[in-house]
Write a structure and sequence with these properties.
Layout lengths: L2 E7 L7 H13 L5 E7 L11 H4 L3 E2 L5 E2 L2 H8 L9 E3 H14 L9 H20 L3 E6 L9 H14 L4 E8 L2 E2 L4 E2 L2 H13 L5 E6 L5 H11 L6 E5 L7 H7 L2 H9 L9 H12 L3 E9 L9 H14 L1 E9 H7 L2 H4 L4 E4 L8 H13 L4 E4 L1 H13 L6 E3 L8 E6 L1 H4 L9 E9 L4 H6 L3 E8 L1 E3 L4 H6 L2 E7 L4 E7 L5 E4 L14 H15 L6
Parallel strand pairs: 1-6, 1-7, 2-5, 2-6, 7-10, 10-11, 12-13, 12-14, 14-15, 15-23, 16-17
Antiparallel strand pairs: 3-4, 8-9, 17-20, 18-19, 18-21, 21-22, 22-23
The protein binds glutamine.
Length: 540
């Protein structure tokens, strides 16, 4: 019988429910259990694919091409769970399914209601995740904050789970804030008491409280929370702010959160093997030997979450190479206004991430030119590759007006354009080239060197492609097409010879990087930067 853990959040949003869920997954996996994780998002959008990054943050893409919440990125980075479109549901998905069934007449004249029809649909989706994954433990994170109107059906479904499956098979974790009030010099438990009270009104008594706090919780405070919230004292977990999110599994482990969960489920498991995580990830992220600065030229840089997986991937590559990667966020529109020189003079690498729309594009193109001409290692991702192609076509091949038809539909030289099949597309949601596709890597290329193999599967999320009509010309001028999707001849990776590291990919390698297993392109990029820093004689 599978076990279910529901993770809810109280008091305020952005408490780190996603990282809490992922870390619980990690500590349970280290006990030999197979885990999977799922996110329930209370908004009405079917998926976040059509949302502005400032609304939602990064859209995380799974192998099977689902556009999902960025918390799924945390789940995949912390655990070995393979997530699919089933691992993220939204109110939009649930209502869509129920209303379509109603229209077909499947409910045979019944009145369709939140309970039981919507809640049943939610429960079925959760059970489906268990069936598809074959996991021993399903961790279900419920988005939003307890007390919100939107998340009520999800919380009600979570409540029903322990009724349906038996209390010993279901566990509730509540992530809450225990604020420190500076002027009173006191830590306050009242918001947590209220939040647990609200949860109880819905019928959920949490088994575990994860308390986000700036200051350590004293034994007295833990006892107080335990008493008022009716949670065992050991199950009041202190989650203090830490330097790196990758410390969290260790923070939980120290407080025997894994044991508390296993004893609730009456499971006997092997000892934990988290030492490797501590040695390979935590020690290294906290004590790097060197430091490098990389410019990150994007347009949503003001929002921490907009490029989550890319930032994390840089950290992973730093961990591997024993260096701290400082990310200098540069607004591409500023480069457009003031020139590359002003912003890129003090960096040892340039990264241009994905994006949509013309705003800021010319700044990205200038930044790439600066990196190409000054031998600064460069990594381009998706739109970053498209900009690299445009830059090369314009400035190295003299192709006037080279552009993407996304920005200039009647471009004189459309080096990036739509595939025939995309012209027919009318809906914006879920219609891009999405998910994993094979990429054949060219022998003896830089890509082959960093990958150490000639075939890889990488995740996509874009509509436009390199226009193969220009391939010969660009090749003649020195652009190497080192990765191709064989079935359709689509360009996946481009690179330059006679440059320390100039690689750009049409796919999103950031979705497959892990702290203990960085993506080869990020790893190669950061090691090229370090090699240059060390000088030719000391290069690895
Ligand atoms: N806007 C580009 C396209 O649709 C790139 C997308 C991206 O960077 N994810 O092809």
């Amino acid at each position: 019988m599978a076990k279910y853990i529901f993770v809810t959040g109280g008091v305020i949003s952005s408490l780190g429910k996603g990282i809490t869920s992922a870390s619980i997954g990690r500590i349970l996996e280290s006990r030999g259990l197979k885990v999977t994780l799922m996110k329930c998002d209370p908004y009405i959008n079917v998926d976040p694919g059509t949302m502005n990054p400032y609304q939602h943050g990064e859209v995380y893409v799974t192998d099977d091409g689902a556009e999902t919440d960025l918390d799924l990125g945390h789940y995949e980075r912390f655990t070995s769970a393979k997530l699919t479109k089933f691992n993220n549901v939204t109110t939009g998905i649930i209502y869509n399914a129920v209303i379509s069934r109603e229209r077909r007449g499947d409910y045979l004249g019944k009145t369709i209601q939140v309970i039981p029809h919507i809640t049943n649909e939610i429960k079925d989706r959760i059970k489906k995740v268990k069936d598809v994954s074959g996991a021993d433990i399903v961790i279900v994170e419920i988005g939003g904050t307890v007390g919100d109107i939107e998340s009520l059906p999800f919380l009600e479904a979570a409540r029903q789970f322990s009724h349906d499956m038996g209390k010993e098979n279901v566990l509730y974790v509540h992530v809450t804030l225990v604020p420190y009030i500076k002027c009173a010099e006191e830590i306050k438990t009242k918001p947590t008491q209220h939040s647990v009270g609200t949860l109880r009104e819905i019928g959920i008594q949490p088994d575990i409280l994860v308390c986000r706090t700036e200051k350590p919780l004293t034994t007295e405070l833990k006892e107080k929370i335990s008493l008022f919230c009716n949670v065992q004292k050991e199950a009041v977990i202190e989650a203090m702010d830490v330097q790196s999110i990758y410390q969290i599994p260790m923070v939980f482990k120290k407080q025997i959160l894994d044991e508390i969960i296993l004893s609730h489920f009456k499971l006997i498991c092997k000892f934990s093997d988290l030492e490797k995580w501590q040695a390979k990830v935590v020690e290294r992220v906290l004590n790097p030997k060197g430091k490098i600065r990389i410019a990150f030229v994007g347009k949503y840089i003001a929002l921490q979450d907009a490029y989550k997986s890319v930032y994390e991937s840089l950290t992973h590559a730093g961990i591997y190479n024993d260096a701290e990667v400082e990310i200098k966020k540069v607004d591409s529109e500023d480069i457009q206004k003031f020139g590359s020189e002003k912003f890129l003079n003090d960096v040892s690498g340039v990264l241009v991430p994905g994006g949509f729309g013309y705003r800021g594009i010319e700044g990205k193109i200038s930044a790439i030119r600066f990196a190409r001409e000054n031998n600064i290692p460069f990594l381009g991702l998706c739109l970053g590759m498209q900009c690299a192609v445009i830059e090369f076509a314009r400035n190295a091949c003299g192709l006037k007006g080279a552009n993407s038809t996304e920005f200039k539909p009647k471009a004189k030289n459309p080096v990036i354009s739509l595939l025939q099949e995309q012209y027919k597309v009318k809906d914006l949601g879920g219609t891009m080239r999405l998910g994993a596709y094979p990429c054949r890597i060219k022998n003896n290329s830089l890509a082959a060197k960093v990958y150490g193999k000639l075939l890889t599967f990488e995740r996509h999320r874009h509509r436009y492609e390199f226009n193969n009509r220009y391939r010969k010309l660009l090749e003649k001028k020195g652009l190497v097409f080192s990765g191709v999707y064989p079935k359709k001849g689509l360009v996946e990776i481009v690179e330059l010879k006679n440059h320390p590291f100039f690689v750009a990919a049409q796919f999103h390698p950031e979705f497959k990087s892990k702290p203990d297993n960085p993506h080869p392109l990020f790893r190669g990029f950061i090691s090229a930067v370090l090699d240059l820093q060390r000088g030719p004689s000391k290069a690895k």
